[in-house]
TrEMBL record, chains A, B, C:
The keyword Zinc does not apply. It comes from Sander lucioperca (Pike-perch). Residues 17-101 form the Pyrroline-5-carboxylate reductase catalytic N-terminal domain. One of its GO terms (molecular function) is metal ion binding. It is a multi-pass membrane protein. Belongs to the STEAP family. GO terms for cellular component: endosome membrane; plasma membrane. This is STEAP family member 4. Its main location: membrane. GO terms for biological process: copper ion import; iron ion transport.
């Protein structure tokens, strides 16, 4: 049997070497073995280096290094020094540095760069460091499929990329070794793309909160001398949440409209947007989700109104006569709010990775843009109905009611969007987005496909 | 080093050719290179065709075509004509057509078929067109892993399927080149499987809405001359939503029961169901999710009742004496509704791709069927409790109250399901579903495994 | 063309054999063909064995077995007997047993073991049985990517693992053939990791329910002779849900704290935890999600209070004078509850497979631990505010109000957590978790990397 076996798969039995027999080293070896490689471990004490995956053998670092053309370094940076002694054996080999640090900027230079400095004769490639031992053990899953790599030798990177692909990962080249620092920071970063949206949210919340406190609590205290500070916990919170939510929702759709106007102005889609716009567009999803969170709080806070002690006590101040218009208004006001929230929720659900993955590009853009603008409209209309007729009345200390502040941005957004939807404008924008350029000089094979 | 490298992976260094250096062409080349292929680009201006992925080279179309046995066409259909001049070089090659169109039915015949007509001597295979440049760049993710392909040459398709597999995709053969049109429509379609459920939803909503408007608003206006049109926005909406939701929920479970009866009648599971039933069963998930949406709206609309101006104004009409039975009834009514909604939500969550993927088949069917029917029961019971004693009373213009309409289908469904659960019936149905046939003639090795 | 094609991929054209032409056999063959294998089917009637995937051929079992070194058995266990006659041809081959049973413990010994007994000369490997024909047809998706395998021959397992990897799956070695029984039970198990949390939930619910029934209903009936049994459906349910939810939430975070103390005491993270703690920690996610479910019910049950007949009838008992403190308290009470629930929801969302996959390890632990403890704090504080001043009053039959029971565990949890957060304690714990040991004897290369 052995021979049938051998010659059937012999050509791919490449030998790889791993330095370090820790969690990661062992998991990596396991996966390599399962993917049809032969694996040899380099260890200080080849005969007592703990349990190794079945099929792998352990040798001295020297022997191991010599035997393979590709060496994985699964060891701490603090222990790199001993590699210097192996310089001759590692001459011309591919060294894959998978190490990480405990903190950012622990060292001035990236581990991989320090390694390259130690062994100038080797081709150092930074790779696999974003994967956990766990991810290796269980094979690639949807999220940790990407293997980022960088290095100075093109052929070396190529070799590592092939190994990654064979292991079932998707290799992504991040350029020269100078990108190593960035790769080493990946596992340490904490929601980078959420930072900006959260700052905006906190800033807005703080501002609106102070605004309503002054307008509703301080004003009442100073002018009428009554203390309704207790309204802070629910009544005022429930003014802050919807306002922040609506503003952030429009912040999430504004950049798209701006981009449209820029493309119209430039007459092409192939020139990059200004950086601030790029960055803004990249965090639209996060802006939207934060806004959804605030909308959710607004809904629940609204629903508990009737069970509040304060409300139960004072009851509702009834007017003498039932007014159908008011009934219409209050009911439409609630309906708009609920429908808007429902759509908003739908947007949130479709931005779940697994759901958005399952959508075709056309479907995704339909939901996120068409339904998105419908949501904006519902929520804005909801707020207008709330304002109703007390729009230009009820100023206190020359401060307009807070909800009026929240109406500025969405109103602007809707107007701009309507401009873009004018048949003539829409037509030329569509053509631009389909690759057409006002002054078209390229030959076809260079026009990107619509995919 | 070079030579170790070479001979270790030499056998797999297959050379592939790509026509077109646009977004898609470049991304595809990148991924191919990372997967261990050599890549050559065919271009009109090999020396000025913009940035190419590192490691790939560019040649004239002729030279490129000659060098490889497999050619990817990443160019617009409008530019196919120049290929005719390459017919000799493309003779006997595999041409992979990855092109898409901007609209459906832009051309009478599929791009791939037109291509085959232009170069009869080549083996045209339609493939990769459902993938975006983005998906190629970042490697396969859970959703866009499938690569659909079709073509007339079995060997050619085989070759393309192998490339796809090596790139980490899963190849799915869709038959001969005549399927190309269908594949080219994939990226353009908009929620095909949602269409039917949405039509049903809209139709039902419209009908029920008109029904309740006539019964509650028009009737009151004509008979008592009072205008309660304002009730449309919330009161009536909140009658329509639960009714549509309940009907669609039962529509989601009905086909399963019907299928059961058909299998019982036929005594086998190996004969296909009638088309209408197949199509119905294929959109059960969508039916359920739409129903969930309506249930959600119903819940929120119910919860805002006490803060409505109308309700606050008229308050509640109290009877003179507190009736424990009524208290029991109203509370159970609410409980049933909430528990039903809770279960419904659970069903919705488990039908999220990533969640249902994580379930074993047995677990998924347990939730979707067992818990599903429990949900149906709760919701139906909830509605019966709502009706309570005013069942055969309160007709207006001979129209029964709307909620009674919603009770027909679920009641039928529950009865049918109970029939299927009768021990004797259940036993034989189970045996049929385990592959047993009333007249069993096959030998074991042809009976499908229960996996 | 043929020859270019051939020599380009010839080296990988390994031939594999499949016994059984059922659903699974056919799907498996298809996938193998697409991944670049040649496939031959073994069948009783090679010429009338129904449709086979294009490119595969069918032979007699004997011929098929002889032709390949690796044979997949896609047939029912009941039909294994005929294999005995093939013993000579199967001598020294790898037999991959993919069979499953309809029930657990249908047979005393695992299918694979029985197979090994029948053909002692072959290398039996249990594998692929956890995959459905459907999963094979459509290629690996995120959830069913793992292929578990076990067997006695290391080389044989290696060969199967390679096939699995080439098919795009991730092979996981489960050891010797004695593990086959376990693998064969996988597709049959029903939420094993949910069992314990659900038992706990049911047990707690039952206990608390009885407790409140005695305290609120029975007591009132015996002492004041009034029947408020109707309160069971909502009022009492809404006492049980939050209590169970809070207790289970703290049960979800308690093991982490305990583990911390154990590590501190041992001064290392490399020694295994006691089994009970391991098992407890493994079902933390489930504990949390069940708790979330109960919290959701609690929220909705609370929101319907004002529309209950009972409440509407008796209205609210107003005190003579409006008390700001009470207003503050009740509002903060609601706010805490809502914010706690909001955070809780966030925890639930991030534990969706696709979401948690998209998070870096650091991000995941930030949310699940930092935000998790914040949730615990909010919910506990919410309950304390509910108790407010009627803490050591209102005993009935010496039974404290139910909510007090729910406060014990979370309070203990919070205290313990605060202890762990003391700078000195925290520092040494962090060092331990970074691989440091109180008595460090290992050399660096054996210290696991922080990945």
């Amino acid at each position: 049997w052995a021979n049938t076996k051998t010659d059937s798969t012999a050509p791919e039995q490449e030998l790889l070497c791993i330095f370090g027999t820790g969690d990661l080293g062992r998991s990596l070896g396991q996966r390599l073995l399962h993917s049809g490689y032969r694996v040899v471990y380099g260890s200080r004490r080849p005969h007592s280096c703990g349990p190794l995956p079945q099929g792998a053998q352990a040798m001295s670092h020297e022997a191991a290094a010599q035997s393979a053309s590709l060496v994985f370094l699964c060891i701490h940076r603090e222990h790199y020094d001993f590699l210097e002694t192996l310089a001759p054996q590692l001459q011309g080999k591919v060294l894959v540095d998978v190490s990480n640090n405990l903190k950012k900027n622990l060292y001035p230079e990236a581990n991989a760069e320090c390694l390259q400095r130690l062994i100038p004769g080797a081709y150092v490639v930074k790779a696999f460091n974003t994967l956990s031992a766990w991810a290796l053990q269980n094979g690639p899953s949807d999220a940790n499929r990407q293997v980022y790599l960088c290095g100075n030798g093109a052929e070396a990177k190529q070799a590592v990329a092939e190994v990654a692909t064979k292991l079932g990962f998707a290799a992504l080249d991040r350029g020269s070794l100078s990108a190593a620092k960035e790769l080493e920071d990946f596992p340490l970063q904490l929601f980078p793309e959420w930072r900006m949206p959260l700052y905006v949210a906190v800033g807005l919340t703080a501002f609106i909160f102070v605004y309503v406190v002054i307008r509703d609590v301080v004003y009442a205290y100073v002018e009428q001398g009554e203390d309704n500070s207790f309204r802070i916990m629910v009544s005022l919170a429930n003014k802050v949440f919807p306002i922040v939510s609506l503003i952030m929702l429009s912040l999430c759709y504004l950049p798209g409209v701006i981009a449209g106007f820029i493309q119209l102005y430039r007459g092409t889609k192939y020139r990059r947007f200004p950086d601030w716009l790029d960055r803004w567009m990249l965090c639209r999803k996060q802006l939207g989700l934060v806004a959804l969170g605030f909308a959710f709080l607004h809904m629940v806070y609204t629903l508990i109104i009737p069970i509040r002690y304060y409300v139960i006590f004072w009851g509702s101040n009834r007017t003498s006569v039932f007014d159908t218009t008011t009934a219409w208004r209050s009911d439409s006001y609630y309906s708009m709010g609920i429908l808007g929230f429902g759509l908003f929720l739908l947007l949130g659900i479709t931005s779940l990775p697994s759901v958005s993955n399952a959508l075709s590009w056309r479907e995704f853009s339909f939901i996120q843009s068409k339904l998105g603008y419908l949501t904006v409209f519902f929520c804005t209309f909801h707020t207008y109905l709330y304002g109703w007729d007390k729009f230009l009345r009820t100023y206190k200390w020359y401060m307009p009611p807070a909800y009026m502040l929240s109406l500025v941005l969405p109103s602007v957004l809707i107007v701009l969007k309507l401009l873009l939807l004018l048949p003539c404008v829409d037509r030329s924008l569509t053509r631009i987005r389909q690759g057409w350029e006002r002054t078209d000089t390229q030959d076809g094979s260079e026009k990107p496909l619509l995919t």
